[in-house]
Design brief:
The complex is a heterodimer. Chain A is of the alpha/beta class. Chain A folds into 2 domains: 271 residues, Protocatechuate 4,5-dioxygenase, Chain B (3-Layer(aba) Sandwich), CATH 3.40.830; 134 residues, RutC-like (60s Ribosomal Protein L30, Chain: A), CATH 3.30.1330. Chain A is built from 10 helices and 16 strands. In chain A, the strands form 4 sheets. Chain A has a 6-stranded mixed β-sheet with strand order 7-2-8-1-10-9, with helices on both faces. Chain A has a 6-stranded mixed β-sheet with strand order 11-12-13-16-14-15, covered by helices on one side. In chain A, a hairpin with a 2-residue loop joins β9 and β10. The longest helix of chain A has 18 residues. Chain B has one domain: LigB-like (Protocatechuate 4,5-dioxygenase, Chain B), CATH 3.40.830.10. Chain B has a 6-stranded mixed β-sheet with strand order 7-2-8-1-10-9, with helices on both faces. In chain B, strands 3-6 form a two-stranded parallel sheet. In chain B, β4 and β5 form a beta hairpin. Classes of the chains: A alpha/beta, B alpha/beta. At the A-B interface, β2 of A face β2, β4 and α7 of B.
């Protein structure tokens, strides 16, 4: 099964107060009630897996994925130990954890599963699972937050989660356990007086939540660096990068902000993102979409030469990643397929013919009428239109004609049309030095004489 | 009788060192590894065996708190500590006594000096692996009680300089508490030096062909810092730590070394470097400040004026 079913995403806070002492503060009481709302939505969602990324589970050597099928312990928060204990017994999806590990490795990440009795599950994970999935009705999987990982590495980690969902056929819900602004009060407070510790943090939190309420998760992902710099984002807002990549890097969601409250000075919000057919406008994205992790982070100059090589070629890659390209600037597909798919730094285009976008008119005329009778046609005009359509798809994917690597040309009449088609090729693609194969076929799906199948560099 | 701090040890806590030793308390087994550092710890054990002391006070970066400085306040802990970073190396069964009276005195002294403090009274609390690893490496029999002090995150929150100020105040409060309670204490600063490390792990963790310093710049900084220690220039060392932190990602950012040197009164006698070595690319040194060496003033001290 390869269908990708990430049903929806949530952002929830991870400090223990809503779990252990919601009654002490109106803000914490409200958060607890909002956790209950989210819990009900998850229970009704039909999901069979919860995948969590917690900013409180810090790793330093790559990423770790919890694979103990039934971890059990009595947890005490290292900071707020006076609030009480958190006994837990969770149900983890160990098979999915292993699939996630394989998917992460296939994308070049350093990853491993952990399954040890007594492994210290972090407060954020404990809080989220106890409040959102109290009876363990849905098995879970938790992945760590690498404290050194940058955006690219975290995006790849999110895409690997998506790969694993596709490969295992799970119906998953993605949950980022993270604060927004993360500036704790560094002194004791009266819980009733809890507030966001800085007005600037509050303003930035509200800006972020406005975007999330409009379903613009990818916009928030693109804004994460700026937010973190301005408002001390929790672990540089890696949880948003992970979530955006996991859900598919777009703005097509119904966003719901269930709550926004102070939590010991931090910005605590519960946000839901339900994939939707209607996308808020995609803004101009500045940050690239990274597909694979290239190795060490090179934080120190020259550092990369001093470290061991990253894992070599991926093995047993699970499902193909996302990177679906569709564009109005090219003729509408005649079936349920995309104009192109991006994998790594390669673009694979569907067969592209000469029909004009929008009207489906065929330049140079159709090769047959509605009854199948042959008609005169101009293959040179059709070939030029094919080039224009290929160009449109490539540019929609951020590529260009100059990045074409290989083309398969399909002609319905080799003897009649090859010379003219070849002349157009020489004129438009001759300088690119792409490889090419030309085949004669009995027919093409629409009344056209020529179609190209293109592989290009992204 | 007034108490005193009889020694301070820079006692880094890589779980690899405990793992490589194969003590009965730790579940994983190793073939070998990081011998130079472990031999350094053996020398520390011999040195401490000759001292009359009754408590270890350990400041660990892996008990991170932001709301003030926390102190262990439960008399006995027994349980299993699994390192969240290296669970494959460290699953340690601990059985620890805590000197709660001293812990409370330290908490009160620190509070009186203006710091935010809190006692940790929850009996289900799990000791962090930094505390356990450092204590094990200097006293594997756990024959002495400990006091555990959290690492306040003001370094991360505000600046290196603010962090330094807090840790110096904490160190001075620690000294006063030790003196008032009549304890003879050994301090453990559970910090490595340079701390940029590899982001991948060897298939065999103790494969020493894979072990080296991450970056030459780190090594130069580590040597600079060790030279200052050996020359007894601890005040100057503390002044340089913010740069060391920035340039070498040093774990002393977590404050243990500054706390210990302040508690020792910024010793001008030479520290003894028992060992230096790297663990997954980080620089680690086992260093002893022994007050009985105070008479040995360093000829190599820089001229004044």
């Amino acid at each position: 099964m390869t269908t990708n079913q990430v049903l929806r995403g949530f952002i929830v806070p991870g400090l223990p107060h809503p779990l252990l002492c919601p009654e002490r503060s109106p803000a914490w009481t409200s958060l607890r009630a909002s956790f209950d709302r989210v819990r009900e939505e998850i229970a009704a969602s039909g999901a069979d897996l919860l995948v969590l990324y917690s900013t409180q589970w810090i790793s330093v050597i790559g990423h770790q994925i919890q694979a103990d099928p039934e971890p059990e312990w009595v947890h005490v928060d290292p900071e707020f130990h006076d609030l009480g204990t958190m006994p837990y017994r969770f149900r983890m999806d160990a098979a999915f954890a292993r699939a996630y590990e394989a998917a992460a490795k296939a994308r070049g990440l350093h990853a491993r599963t952990v399954a040890y009795h007594g492994f210290p599950i972090d407060t954020g994970t404990v809080v989220a699972l106890k409040l959102l999935n109290p009876g363990n009705a849905i098995p879970a999987c938790v992945v760590s937050c690498n404290m050194y990982a940058d955006r690219g590495e975290t995006i790849v980690l999110g895409k690997a989660a998506r790969d694993a969902v596709a490969a295992t056929g799970r119906k998953a819900i993605a949950i980022s356990v993270s604060a927004l602004s993360a500036r704790l009060f560094t002194h004791e407070i009266d819980p009733k007086d809890d507030r966001i510790s800085s007005l600037k943090d509050d303003e930035w939190n509200r800006k972020l939540l406005e975007l999330l309420g409009e379903g613009r998760l990818e916009d928030v992902s693109q804004l994460a660096r700026e937010f973190s710099a301005q408002a001390n984002g929790d672990q540089k807002m890696k949880a948003v990068w992970w979530l955006a990549a996991f859900l598919g890097e777009h703005n097509a969601y119904e966003g719901t902000v269930y709550d926004y409250q102070p939590l010991w000075g931090t910005g605590a919000a519960l946000v839901g993102l339900l994939p939707s057919a209607r996308a808020a406008a995609n803004l101009e994205f500045d940050e690239e979409s990274v597909e694979t992790f290239g190795g060490d982070r090179g934080v120190l100059s020259g550092g990369s030469a001093a470290v061991p090589s990253p894992p070599s070629a991926p093995v047993a890659a699970p499902a193909p990643p996302g990177g679906i390209i569709r564009t109005e600037a090219a003729p509408k597909p005649v079936g349920a397929y995309a104009h192109a798919r991006r994998v790594g730094n390669l673009l694979f285009l569907a067969g592209i013919g000469p029909r004009r976008p929008g009207t489906d008119e065929i330049p140079g005329g159709p090769v047959r009428d509605a009854d199948g009778n042959p008609l005169p046609y101009d293959v040179e005009a059709q070939a030029r239109s094919v080039v224009a359509n290929v160009k449109a798809v490539l540019e929609a994917a951020g590529s260009s004609l100059e990045k074409i690597l290989d083309v398969t040309v399909y002609l319905i009449d080799m003897k009649r049309d090859f010379a003219a088609a070849n002349a157009v090729w020489a004129e438009t693609l001759g300088h690119v030095n792409a490889t090419r194969t030309t085949l004669e076929v009995a027919a093409l799906p629409t009344p056209i004489a020529i179609e190209w199948k293109v592989v290009a560099e992204a | 009788m007034s108490g005193s701090i009889v020694a301070g040890i820079l006692a880094p806590h890589p779980p690899h060192l405990v793992y490589a030793e194969n003590p009965p308390q730790n579940e994983p087994r190793a073939e070998c590894g990081w011998e130079v550092l472990r031999w350094g710890y053996e020398r520390v054990r011999k040195s401490l065996a000759a001292l009359d002391y009754d408590v270890l006070i350990v400041h660990s970066p892996h008990w991170r708190t932001f709301v003030g400085h926390h102190f262990l306040g439960v008399p006995h802990f027994k349980g299993l500590s699994v390192d969240p970073i290296f669970p494959n190396l460290f699953r340690y069964h601990f059985d620890v006594n805590v000197d709660v009276e001293l812990s409370e005195a330290m908490c009160e002294e620190a509070k009186a000096s203006g710091l935010v403090t809190k006692m940790m009274r929850n009996p289900a609390f799990r000791l962090d692996y930094g505390t356990i690893a450092s204590c094990h490496l200097v006293n594997p029999s756990w024959s002495k009680p400990i006091v555990g002090v959290s690492s306040n995150g003001s370094y991360y929150y505000y600046s290196n300089e603010v962090g330094q100020e807090e840790q110096i105040a904490l160190g001075e409060a620690t000294r006063r508490a030790v003196e008032k309670t009549g304890r003879r204490a050994v301090l453990l600063a559970s910090n490595s030096l340079s701390h940029r490390h590899f982001t991948t792990e060897a298939e065999i963790p103790e494969d020493m062909s894979r072990e080296h310093v991450y970056h030459h710049g780190q090594y130069l900084w580590d040597m600079r810092v060790l030279d200052l220690m050996k020359q007894g220039r601890s005040r100057e060392l503390v002044d340089e730590l913010p740069d060391f932190i920035d340039h070498a990602e040093s774990e002393v950012k977590a404050g243990a070394l500054t706390w210990m040197l302040a508690a020792l009164g910024f010793p001008s006698y030479p520290a003894e470097v028992h060992a230096y070595g790297t663990v997954i690319g980080t620089g680690n040194a086992v260093v002893e400040w022994n007050a009985s060496h105070e008479d040995v003033r360093v000829a190599a001290s820089p001229p004044v004026g």
